[in-house]
Amino acid sequence: MGQPTLPRCACCGFRTGCSTCPICFWTDDGRSDVHDDVGTGSRNGDLSLADARLNFSIYGASTPRYKDLVRAPRADERP
Ligand SMILES: [Zn+2]
User: Fold this and answer.
1) Where are the domains of the chain?
2) In terms of DSSP H, where are the helices of the chain?
């Protein structure tokens, strides 16, 4: 029996299974495609998934203001 496969974070790609990812602080709002830029009124606000991924690559968080709140991914959360 392998470990259950948790859903991947749409932003950072790690498998945390949390609605708000502790690694990048993206909140899962059902968007998973970079071209899906419709604001949902969720905690992500008007942030597009493409911008969140870009921010994660630069700051290690989906927005710069969350960069002090995120934590490093664990080995078992890697995609
Ligand atoms: Zn994430």
Assistant:
1) 1-71
2) 49-59
